[in-house]
Design brief:
alpha/beta; Oxidized Rhodanese, domain 1; 2 domains; five-stranded parallel beta sheet; four-stranded parallel beta sheet; 11 helices; 11 strands; 31% helix
Amino acid sequence: MKTNSIINTDELCQISNHPNLKIFDVRTGPSAKEEYLKKHLLNAVFVDLNTDLAEIDNPKNGGRHPLPAFSNFIKTLGKLGIDKDSEVVIYDDKNGANAGARFWWMLKAVGHQNVRVLNGGLQFAESQNYSVSSGDDSYPETEYISEFKDWQLPQVWIDDVKVATENPEFLIVDVRESQRYQGITEPIDLIAGHIPNAENFPFSDNLDENGLFKSPEVLHEKYAEFFKNRNSDKIIFHCGSGVTACHSLLALDHAGFEIPNLYVGSWSEWSRN
């Protein structure tokens, strides 16, 4: 059964007493853990992008946030207290546009179906008076059993992207803000610009003026027009380091599309090669 990939604050309130509910705070930034300790949604456990959701090495090989080894991620899920029966809800402080969507993609890619991202993230939940707490929360450790040995959602690598840049049947989608795509500014990576023949569909276009996901119907119409009848296997999404691109994959799942290819290395890897 396909479960919706987005959950609203009022829906989270309704299931807040479910025994299998596990809530995770995946905000990022240099003071992310400190901010989490000051205030987070009730019972939420902190997840670190750099250590739990990536295995950082040389950005030239895999980008700034390459995926961890599949087996290591399975161990991480157990340490976080997630098992096959867990009802997982994820949020961050950027409308799910940062590590919240990345964690969602990774859980879906190990075969975990019951995982949703909180619409509007931390700020919107607070504005709706959702209960908050402080300190460091945790869930009892479990053992996560996956029937798979490798990631189950489609990915491509730098050589595949190079081929796609020279094949008009492919659509390479850059979800960074337009100024980074155009090479006007580059606050993170060494070189400004974009992958040849990539088209820009900023992740922010998935959201309305309140920072909530647009309706599935609106998103479906916008992306259907953009895709021009391409199959999902001919579509590649990327961003700076394979994190924010997952926000657009989340939006596509929300809108009823098959999840297309993710290029995890993204501009951070491409620009260094």
